[in-house]
Design a protein that fits this description.
Layout lengths: L2 H19 L25 H4 L34 H23 L7 H7 L16 H17 L1 H4 L16 H15 L1 H4 L21 H8 L2 H4 L1 H6 L3 H13 L8 H17 L13 H19 L11 H12 L1
Helix pairs in contact: 3-13, 5-7, 12-14
């Protein structure tokens, strides 16, 4: 190499070193939230995070003049849970090696993470075991108990009474997390002493009231297992400038010279929102590289899945709940 080539290489090296040393002050590091926007986590948003100030109940607590509640039909989702076995597999495969690479980047003064975020990622491993798959997480216990307490206080004439099996009908699916949710809901509504004496019914399948979609072969064939149409828009969104801009920004904040894969982005976002739901008082290091805009992009990526899989994105979806609505109609005619 000639003298001029050596000088150029030296200048380039110095330039790269200067960029690395200045990485924490680069514009890419701006806009990262000190607090995770806990309401932008799609279906993993915790109940307490979604409505932590309680203001959402105010408009429902005013008594309707001349009316009193006589009957309630409530369809509730289960509480915050652990990932599925499949999701656990993705998180275990992708995140531990990714955390090591992020640490290496930080060691070389690349990226925007703060020291306490990097320390969280040191020897990081998912905080769950395979036996936890799809089970209700401890936060889910408290969420459901709190919701049960709310309904007792909201409609005291109906619920501030002793449990009577002839007056209260309880149902849940064969998924253990829904039975656990029912138990803790009743714990919040009737108290610790009473709930132990309540005999829960045996779950059954197919359940056309609660899991109508999984009991519909046509829905399974045309919607759930139809990757070509149901999840097409979600995939196309990953090819847009909005998504690519987000991937490049998050990758750069983590110190990478190249964009991370969509699978890696989804794994980080998933772990971020699981941990945010389980432990809302502390920030997950996996949330640290996402700006408010990035969270909006990732939530929209999730929305595209659920819109076409469960909502009006497919004409069959609204029809699958007919038996559920018919059950409401029949019970309120009694």
């Amino acid at each position: 190499m000639g003298r001029q080539g050596a000088a150029t290489a030296t200048s380039l090296t110095l330039c790269l070193m200067w960029l690395c040393c200045q990485c924490h002050s680069l514009p890419i590091c701006e806009g990262v939230e000190d607090e995770t926007p806990l309401h932008l986590l799609s279906t993993k948003t915790g109940y307490f995070n979604a409505h932590k100030d309680g203001s959402h109940w105010e408009k429902y607590t005013e008594a309707v003049h001349g009316c009193s509640a006589k009957q309630v039909w409530l369809l509730a989702r289960h509480g915050t849970r652990f990932p599925t076995a499949n999701d656990m597999g993705h998180l275990v495969k992708l995140l531990p090696p990714l955390s090591q690479r992020i640490r290496d980047n930080h060691r070389h003064d690349r990226g925007c993470l703060k020291e306490h975020d990097v320390s969280q990622l040191t020897d990081w491993f998912p905080p769950f075991e395979l036996r936890d798959r799809e089970q209700l997480q401890e936060m889910g216990h408290e969420e459901m108990a709190s919701i049960g307490t709310h309904w007792r206080e909201f409609l005291p004439d109906l619920f501030n009474v002793d449990f009577d099996p002839s007056l209260f009908k309880i149902d849940f699916t064969v998924k253990n997390r829904t039975e656990q949710s029912a138990y803790h809901f009743l714990r919040g509504m009737f108290g610790e002493d009473t709930v132990g004496n309540i005999e829960l019914p045996k779950a059954y399948s197919p359940n056309f009231i609660l899991r109508f979609y999984k009991a519909c072969p046509r829905w399974l064939r045309e919607v759930y297992k139809n990757n070509e149409t149901t999840y097409k828009e979600r995939w196309l969104f990953t090819e847009t400038e909005h998504f690519k801009k987000m991937v490049h920004a998050v990758s750069a904040r983590l110190g990478f010279m190249h964009p991370l894969s969509t699978d890696e982005m989804v794994a980080m976002y998933d772990e971020c929102r699981y941990e945010a739901a389980w432990w809302p008082q502390r920030k997950s290091a996996w949330c640290s590289a996402f700006s408010h805009y990035d969270f909006e992009v990732m939530e929209y990526h999730q929305d595209l899945k659920y819109y076409y899989e469960d909502s009006f994105g497919h004409p069959l979806n609204p029809k699958t709940a007919c038996q559920t609505l018919n059950d409401i109609r029949k019970l309120f005619q009694l």
